[in-house]
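Re: Re: ligand-bound prediction request (bumping)

Still looking for help on this. To restate: I need the protein modeled with NAP bound, output as structure tokens. Inputs repeated here so nobody has to scroll up.
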Amino acid sequence: MGVLRNISFLLYGSKNFSKNGFARASMTWDKSVMERRLEGRVVMVTGANQGLGFETSQELARRGATLYMVCRNPIRGEEAVQKVRQVTGNQDVHLQVCDVSSLASIESLVREWEAANRPLHVLINNAGILVHEFIPSADGYESCFATSTLGAFALTWALGPVLRRSAPSRVVFVSSGGMYTAPLEVRNVSNDDLKIGKYDGMLAYSRDKRRQVALAEKFAELWGPEGVGVYSMHPGWATTEGVKKSIPGFYSFYRDSFREVGQGADTIVWLALQDASALQPGAFYLDRAAQPKHLRFAGTQYSKQQVDELWSALERICVDKVKPAGEGAS
Ligand SMILES: NC(=O)c1ccc[n+]([C@@H]2O[C@H](COP(=O)([O-])OP(=O)(O)OC[C@H]3O[C@@H](n4cnc5c(N)ncnc54)[C@H](OP(=O)(O)O)[C@@H]3O)[C@@H](O)[C@H]2O)c1
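Reply:
Sorry for the wait, this slipped through. Here it is.
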């Protein structure tokens, strides 16, 4: 099954995730959505100091958003903020230092946000890593899981009351086409299977990206009625430092097919701008269109019950360590 899935992914990806896929899709786009403005909207982008997060930040700042760039390294973060201010002329751009793989760091961010009594209209969970060794996070979890699954869940979950209060609001999970190669893994949100044998970073990444798609469905179901739109998306294969470093072989083989970083960020920006009524809650987007969540013959279908189990497992991990906004003050 694994081999079939991977072949299916490469065939589908070469056609759709490439720069040619972007060019084909973009022929039919209504360009006016991208002309919308974001003055008065408070936006948070995680993993904002380089790659897709930086590009997205720049595009949202250009449109007048009040922007919080979440970066784990204060020096790289400050440089990125200054660059965005300088390039866009928008001075309402701020650094929010947070390591999203650490629940204590998320807890600090949420307490700070709460104390400032700031709204939040758009949350973009973009921070992500792909590593090839088992590196434990501050809380002892495998680092890819800690960043993309647990971190993205904890941040969204804890900012939920702010997002609901700020509605209409929305959340975007920057997932990946890699999720097509993984079924939803609900067990082992602990580290056990990742520690046994050789650590497979690609498998861990694909599982976390699949989990993000499932979490977007659950958040959409829970919060949609309160005016919070939640979506997941794939940027396509976009040239970034992260890609060059984490999958150098894949990048050099498919290099000519890779998109520019702005083409990868396009759908993230579009999801921040498009009317909620024109979007499908919980859907997985690529190139401004909802996509299937499973490839043919891949055997990756999952049930609603599995999504609920994942949700509960993550909530159990978070509940003692991160308090949702509004519940933190003692
Ligand atoms: N590029 C692609 O082709 C592609 C395809 C599919 C999906 N994606 C997804 O798109 C997202 C961005 O990827 P990218 O290609 O732009 O990668 P990138 O160039 O490596 O950028 C990732 C950003 O995330 C930050 N980050 C990582 N861990 C963090 C943490 N624990 N806390 C806060 N920030 C953290 C990094 O900060 P540091 O500088 O401190 O490391 C960096 O700013 C990821 O979720 C990735 O999985 C990318």
